[in-house]
Amino acid sequence: MGQSAETEGGFPRPERLEDLARQVLAEARDRGASTAEAGVSFGAGLSVSVRMGEVETLEFNRDRSLGVTVYFGQRKGSANTSDWSPAAVRETVAAACSIARYTSEDDCAGLADAALMARDIPDLDLCHPWDLGAEAAIELARECEAAARELDARIVNSEGASVASHRGITAYANSHGFAGGYEGTRHSVSCAVVGQEGGSMQRDYWYSIAREPSALEAVGEVGRRAAERTVRRLNGRRVATGRVPVVFAPEVASGLLGSFVNAIRGGKLYRKASFLVDSLGQQLFPDFVHIQEQPHLPRALGSAPFDGDGVATRTRDLVRDGVLQGYVLDAYSARKLGMESTGNAGGVHNLVIEPGQKDLDALLRDMGRGLLVTELMGQGINYVTGDYSRGAAGFWVEGGEIQYPVEEITVAGHLRDMFMNLVAVGSDVDTRGNIRTGSLLLEGLTVAGE
What we know:
The chain is α+β, with helices and mostly antiparallel strands. The protein has two domains: 2-231, PmbA/TldD fold (2-Layer Sandwich); 236-450, no CATH class. The protein has nine helices and 17 strands. The strands form three sheets. A six-stranded antiparallel sheet has the order 3-2-1-4-5-6. The chain has a five-stranded mixed barrel with strand order 7-12-13-14-17. The protein has a five-stranded mixed sheet with strand order 10-9-8-11-16, with helices on one face.
């Protein structure tokens, strides 16, 4: 394929990648595969980082890949390459076919059902290239870091500021006759600094990420927020061990919802490795909780017109009135469970929990006395049992107001109890990722400190 896949500016068009995927399928068919699927991707971008005003890294990245999976009946083989030349394509398909001939049969192997393929590919407005040169990116990163370092005399060091821009394209085709592709961009600014006061040292960060350059926070604001977050954590204390209400700030609340998603993934369910096995139709959250997957939000970071199996994505309820409505399934896990794919090969697409009317300050007033968590550490989640225990930092709240920073503590509970003990969802929704949530107020978690 080589240069024929690329435009004059060096960036391929979606239809050219789709054509390449179709060529892979034809080669697989000629080699006797009963069905096949191919994915092709291309990406290019720029990333710079500065520390203490000096350039630390300057990277131009450009990568491409081609992956093919072939099926000989129920036997499966896969192979990948970054070389798009005709000879490399033939060799890659041959390798996949060779692997398939030596694998055992799997009754659940195969393409997703033809009826589920995406028929219309909606334009989700995901591609907004940034005409950003290296020098301009370096100056933006310097401005970001300078805003952080100049905010407060207690900012004594920096872990650096970075600016990045990436444009990518992906295409997928399979033997059902499906072929589709789409482009997307992702731009970001971030900063992390270190603060010191007396014997106390802390670091914190802030970042902004968006499909459109114009949707990014101003670099100076990113730096200032990083510095503000750092200095307010200085002179943290431990708190007495006890059972108290907890507010998860939006940037960590998304992780709690991510734990819910992981527990209802098909792979964990068919392996019986989740505490939420056989939970469809069960009340997992209070009645007011509504959690939706919204894959077609324009310009959102998690939007996609189809999943990694070519299955059409669609808006659907995962939780309605607190009751679990559906799992997170790709074609293979769906067959393992005797169910239908939910269009989640590759994960969820814009998980949204319906926000309430109150912002973070109002939730803290409602809580009265308890813990505001702004950072979580460690991987202390057991999905088989549902036990949850993670290192945390944040702020102690009395009389509905923040009193002092808290560090070196652990928050613990059982995820099923934590979901049911959700009291409120804040209006302060964080849209910087694939999970969109406001602050979460939960009753009764064990906080382990002194």
